[in-house]
Amino acid sequence: MADYEKLELLLTYAIPRRDVKPLARRLINHFQGIYFVLRAPVEELTMVPGIGKNTAILIKLFHELELVAYEQHAKSGNYLHDEKYMYEFCRNLVAKEPVEKFFVLYMGDNMRLIYTEEHTKGTINQTGAYPREITKKALELNALSVLLLHNHPISDNSFSLDDCNLTEHVRQALAPLNITLVDHLVLASNGVMHSYKASPWLHNKSLKF
Description:
There is one protein chain. The protein is α+β, with helices and mostly antiparallel strands. The chain is 44% helix and 17% strand. The protein has 8 helices and 5 strands; from the N terminus they run H-H-H-H-H-H-E-E-H-E-H-E-E. The protein has helices at 3-14, 21-31, 34-39, 42-45, 53-75, 83-94, 131-140, 161-174; strands spanning 101-107, 113-121, 145-152, 180-188, 193-195. The longest helix is centred in the N-terminal third of the chain and has 23 residues, at 53-75.
């Protein structure tokens, strides 16, 4: 089946007894692919002619179920060791979010996921994070490692100076407790995932991750 045919099949459950093929194509063209259709907010979906609230909720439900599946899978083993898996899991958390959100992933032995926290929710171009609270939560959960994640919904930029400083503050707060900062990831508006760990020009090259 073509991509639009799969989406068309889904739409038939929300809009029965109607030819929804043109609507499926319209959605894919509007959001530039099924990936972004499933991750679009309900408000944006309903702006497409022919998509009512119930249909938008059904589409969004598939994204929510995908997040649940990823999280349960990550809690069952060391799958976050796989960089591709980790990036996709993190991408699903923040893709198409209209404002900046800061997430913290707390992990146990072998990078088994313990807890995914939406740490803060900000505006379209900024959000904050609190190293003390992150450290406190890590201790409460007996975490051995931590991964930071946030998005830039209207910018293609990677890490700002504030992002770099925050990363170092969190690393320094965790280090005396033998809790490892695995990385800090930023998803830019163009879909590129930036890694602080993989950007040595952003920090001291002698820094140990």
